[in-house]
């Protein structure tokens, strides 16, 4: 835990976008505050399971590993959120791709400056790369392996994808050159069932906590930012309901597929928030025009309070988080205890998924954020292409330049590591040094 907290990549999370660009306001969450919340929710889930499940009595879930997973799960995110991720993946598709979870593993096992391997170990790159990152145990590293899937070394370029009418997104998994490392992690953690994906109990708890945090705390930020009101959530437009319905196709713990109709999405949202919207109206009877206006006035006050009253927003988010944590279900695995399952019950999972999609469509896909995302992608693309060009390595900071010139690894991967590690502000400043007529002073270190 201490190694992570003192690591450079952890500090940089404070300068990386969660939903809104960091320069907008210090109030809104960034990747660091989001990670702290995920770690807190994950620890609460693990504590609850330890106290409730008899199966865990003699081998309780390690709270420190669970908390580590929550703190570390977003380390690999580049500047400018998922749009930065999409752009780097587009640039790296013929060189192993780019994906946030894969980059997290690379950061923890290679890039972070803590130690080196003593000998040439085949689990690390066979090209002279002797870095060992934070030198963590296999069980700790397993806690951030969300996707048991190898990312192909070469995939479709944007041009080929357009020709074939395909839309390409980053592939969730780990880089092909980390396959040996992942196999060793699996082996050291007790192996894996052949018919299932490898995912330790700590990683599953982190994943559930991430979904809970994303669906509630990002929703709270959206209320504060004015993207919607509580009434917009409970009575959304039909187009929004349809978009949410189309984006959800989720396999439930029992193997069924959860794909709600637009009408079912609307019912889930209404059931989730009705107690907050109508909490003061039990037994209310509208008898005349005065009582009707009184009712509407009180209704408007409640709706307004969730956007402008911090107490009400905190009450809303904490109530939802508590409800979702209560919906956590434990499924023991006697043969592979480390891979016992932690999931949400079907009804809670449906609620969380609908809220996630509502937040994503209402905010991330809005035109206000699209402008910022377009600019972010351009900045990432221009920095990458400039540094990747002939002689571009001379623009790198000394440590990256020395590494770039001393190894036989794919040079683009090193450039990718450099760009991915940037905060939003540092990327903007670096871009300004390259392109702006009002560049930063040369005496400010890179």
UniProtKB/TrEMBL annotation:
Enumerate the spans annotated as HD domain.
Answer: 31-215
Gene Ontology BP, a term: dGTP catabolic process
A GO molecular-function annotation:
dGTPase activity
**Keyword Hydrolase recorded:** yes
Q: Name the PROSITE patterns on file.
A: HD (PS51831)
Answer yes or no on keyword Hydrolase.
yes
- Keywords linked to the UniProt accession: Hydrolase
Query: Which NCBIfam families would you find in this protein's record?
Result: dGTP_triPase
Please name the PANTHER family in this protein's record.
DEOXYGUANOSINETRIPHOSPHATE TRIPHOSPHOHYDROLASE, DEOXYNUCLEOSIDE TRIPHOSPHATE TRIPHOSPHOHYDROLASE
Identification of the protein by name = Deoxyguanosinetriphosphate triphosphohydrolase
């Amino acid at each position: 835990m201490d190694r992570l907290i003192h690591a450079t990549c952890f500090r940089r999370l404070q300068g990386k976008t969660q939903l809104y660009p960091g320069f907008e306001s210090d109030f809104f969450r960034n990747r660091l505050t989001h990670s702290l919340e995920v770690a807190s929710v994950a620890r609460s889930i693990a504590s609850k399971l330890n106290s409730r499940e008899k199966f865990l009595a003699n081998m309780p879930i390690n709270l420190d590993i669970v908390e580590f997973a929550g703190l570390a799960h977003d380390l690999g995110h580049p500047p400018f959120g998922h749009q930065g991720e999409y752009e780097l993946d587009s640039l790296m598709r013929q060189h192993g791709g780019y994906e946030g979870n894969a980059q997290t593993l690379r950061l923890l096992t290679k890039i972070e400056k803590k130690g080196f391997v003593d000998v040439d170990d085949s689990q690390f790159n066979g090209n002279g790369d002797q870095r060992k990152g934070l030198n963590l145990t296999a069980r700790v590293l397993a806690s951030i392996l969300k996707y048991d899937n190898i990312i192909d070394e070469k995939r479709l370029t944007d041009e080929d994808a357009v020709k074939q009418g395909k839309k390409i997104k980053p592939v969730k998994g780990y880089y092909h050159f980390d396959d040996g490392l992942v196999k060793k992690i699996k082996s050291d953690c007790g192996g894996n069932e052949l018919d299932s994906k490898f995912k330790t109990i700590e990683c599953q708890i982190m994943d559930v906590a991430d979904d809970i945090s994303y669906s509630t705390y990002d929703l709270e930020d959206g209320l504060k930012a004015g993207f919607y009101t509580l009434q917009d959530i409970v009575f959304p437009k039909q187009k929004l309901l349809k978009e949410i319905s189309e984006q959800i196709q989720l396999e439930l713990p029992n193997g069924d597929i959860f794909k709600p109709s637009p009408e079912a999405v609307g019912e889930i949202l209404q059931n989730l928030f009705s107690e907050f919207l109508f909490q003061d109206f039990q037994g209310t009877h509208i008898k005349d025009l005065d009582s009707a206006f009184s009712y509407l006035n009180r209704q408007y006050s409640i709706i307004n309070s969730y956007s402008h009253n911090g107490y009400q927003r905190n009450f809303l988010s904490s109530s939802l988080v508590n409800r979702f944590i209560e919906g956590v279900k434990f499924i023991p695995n006697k043969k592979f205890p480390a891979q016992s399952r932690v999931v949400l019950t079907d009804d809670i999972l449906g609620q969380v998924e609908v809220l996630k999609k509502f937040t994503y469509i209402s905010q991330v896909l809005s035109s206000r954020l699209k402008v910022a995302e377009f600019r972010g992608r351009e900045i990432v693309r221009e920095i990458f292409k400039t540094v990747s060009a002939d002689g571009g390595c001379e623009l790198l900071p000394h440590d990256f330049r020395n590494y770039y010139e001393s190894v036989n690894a794919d040079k683009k991967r090193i450039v990718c590591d450099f760009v991915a590690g940037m905060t939003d502000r540092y990327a903007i400043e670096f871009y300004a040094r390259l392109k702006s007529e009002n560049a930063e002073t040369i005496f400010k270190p890179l």
